[in-house]
User: What shape does this take?
Amino acid sequence: MRCMVPVFYDLEREKSKVWVVLGVATRPLSVRYAARPRLEAVVDVKTGKPVDLAKVDLQFESAHFTVAYPVMAEVYVSKILNRKEFRELCDKHKTQEAILSHLE
Assistant: This one.
């Protein structure tokens, strides 16, 4: 997944702006309703007839997940690395800060 994507070449700086994907990170995500949803009309899918809402036991709960997201940066570089070169750089320097400092 690690890669470097050229965006444009800056003539004044004599460098290329690139987007780099450094890897994937995770973080927790909690989901809940800000306001309890209202149930207005329910139709039985088998019969097509309205359902008595007093007989419906509807429960809303919060949920907790771990989500993955790409770790990206936008930097100027003197040399655009191919995928293999960029992966080697990432493997060698490990952290986001170290990788980015070796690109500029």
Q: What stands out?
A: Residues 3-101 form one domain.
